[in-house]
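Board notes (copied after class):
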Amino acid sequence: MTYGRGAGRAFTLIELLVVIAIIALLVGILLPALGSARREAQATKCSASIRAVAQGVTAYTIDSRWFPLSYVYSSEGDLNRWRIEDQQGSGSPRGYIHWSWMLFSGNSMTGEQFECPSVLNGGAPASNPGANAEDWEPGQTNDLGGGVGSPTPEDRQVKRVAFTSNDAVISRNKLAGSGPQRRNRLVNPAEIDQTAKGGAGTILATEFLSRPGWRSLIPGNEGSNAIKSHRPVTPFVPGSAPANDPYSEPNTGSNNIPRFFYPSLDRIRSDNELGDGMITDANSTLNAVGRHHGNAKVNFVFVDGHVERATTIETIEKRQWGERFFSITGNNRVSLTETR
């Protein structure tokens, strides 16, 4: 029997194996490139989000003349308001008003601006997530020790936050108190503009270090599983106070003596040393800054609104966290030549 001229023939086994091998080789070549492209797209999206956050901060400062605080304690009777006299001590049974809420409730921002697709669930949960179990991480407790779904306290905050602020600019809330201790203070943007580096050389915010369960933000020294996503990162190491530089106000006669220092690079842990409790790590809370965009880099947004991708060590070497601990009362000068 003969076949017509148009009839084809089947592939041999060897030919099929060669085709499969070529396809496998192409997949092996393309997959890393596709993965790299995906990571770059996520990093770019994260950069756009943190830039939008900085724009929200700028709008806030135009309205209020001050940078927001990283968090404040809610007032009794009105959980959306706060009073200076309540901003002392530790913890709040009524929850926190987070800086994301201050920006979100005052303009057209949405919660998505505080999320980054490169990290777990887009960002860390609130320290006190409230009644919705989906807003919690497994094993998380709130500030009062309540577990998943505990309705109170509940923070005024967008549901997920991938970003943390520079404590020297957007600081903690310790505005009140008595006795000879330093306190936090509100920062006017003009104070930063008047320094040599200005807003273009001073970091405003960056990304949190993401670890499974966001345990990187669970302080090991506080005896709970509360995720402290409301806290900023402190970039400086305090030095010993000179004799004429007490911790009380007014702090006269010593303003030219550096009171704070950039951390020495050995305080920044290697990747395999990172784990739980980075935000209150005794060496440097800069260990709570993320490293998830390749080569240990993350996005840093500056006071003037521009974004740079860098490593934490590079920002220390360039002295980009500020020339003063602006949010601290008294002598808040930072040494730009020495480290501790």
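Comment from the instructor: Residues 14-339 form one domain. The chain has four helices and eleven strands.
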